[in-house]
Records
---
Amino acid sequence: MKKTMLIGLLLLFVLSLGAVGYGASNDKIVVTPQLIGNENAKIEITWQPVPAHSLGDSNKAKVAYLMQKAKEWAEKHPDVKITPIQTTIAINDSMAKILVQAAEGRAPDVAAIDSYIFPNFAKYAQPIDDVMKEKKLNVKDWFPFAQKVMKPAGKTLGLWYTTDVRILFYRKDLVKNPPKTWPELFKLGKQLKDKGYDTLLYSAGRDENVTMNTLPYYWGLGGELVDESGKPVFGQGKNREAMISYLKFLKNTVDTGITPIRVLNYKSDPEMLGELAIGKAAMFVGVSNMANQLRSVIGDRFNEQWDVAPIPMAKRGVRVSASGGWVSTIFTKDEQKRKLAADFIISLYVDNAGMEGWCKAGGYLPPRKSVFEKAQFFNSDAFAQKFKKELQYSRVRPAAPVYPAISQEIQIAISNVLTGKASPEQAVDDAWRNVNSRK
């Protein structure tokens, strides 16, 4: 009899827990690439991250960080489930698909958008100023290039959560004073060449990375790729002259021997790592995350031998770089989902703890200035602080629909000029004709 009563009491206890919602909350929360939260939660938010920033990424540090943060958020919001949407690593295809979905009113509730094309999505994005205010975030804390994208007019429409910057890496045991101008670069280059070093490496193969790494030279000459309406202008007037000068500069680095012609084999910066590890390269232009990548290859020698400086420009007094990154934006018009989706992204990537943790795990730079100042991981890193300074002078690629075609033609022009297949003038005119023929 006593045994029967005990079983009955235990059953009543379990049922009572379910009645108050305990069993429907944290004990059923899961965090997987397919679901974050309780599968029975009443509120569903669809989330399309870029694959490299998702729970399905191969980077263990990033996934571990995301799983912990997603779990913490889900536990605080047991009535909400996040359904991640898997997408292709072909970024252009993915972005084009989301843009079509947004135009048709069926975009994911929240999605990651490549920063330079975010302006094309702005008219579909929902404002998040109220959530930012609640979380004590101010758009003025972001670097200037990001502010213009996030808040194109009177409302904040996106959250720029990761970035990078192009910069000159140099061997401080070989280069006492890093060159600030092209003439200084060529003068130093001759000295280093005579000692058996490759003065300057850079990626020159056919890839978007190549355009990004070399555009600062063009911008530094005052050149623009498109006008305010998005119409191509790089082949006209002063922009054409700037493009010719930019290609002549690259050609001269090869012709003088300070840059080996084999840079045409490099489509991305990491492809230079093997050569950099050998120790015969004095300088290279690359993206900021090359610091971590080169450090992982040569260990302590990186901090002992390498430093960074602004990219040399045609004339003294000019300073410009290029940045990329990702912006999360809310598409849902459901008021409850809008606030919850923004809260989720802010917790994951954007608030003080989120941005420090995410950028540390992924090797990214924070697009918020205060994170460089307050986060111990960044304020104690000498390279991070120099990257921060360069971000103040950074620009982003134009969001014009014609930009991908322009970028492709720039890559072809660089290849043809470096190999001697075309003069800089001919290469620019060919690129101009080809871009305009695609209209």
---
Amino acid sequence: MDINGQNGTRQLKEQRKEGMLIAYSTGRVAEWSPKVLVCQALKEKIMSAIERSSRRVAERFRNAVLDRPQLQNFRMLKAKAKRRRN
């Protein structure tokens, strides 16, 4: 064998070792479908986002003043002022 063939063989053996280590370390993950893990991770992210947004809404309602007048646009204010003058 020439030098290139030996280097190729050496690299192939190293790659096999790395592949076996990866396969061994991810053996537990391989028991389930990868899609299931991704879906579970996405579901957890979605649920935490929903929880955060519901907390924000609850805080807004807690801090809200119940008798606050409705916000009105310029046209409504103008019409109200016109009615008061008449």
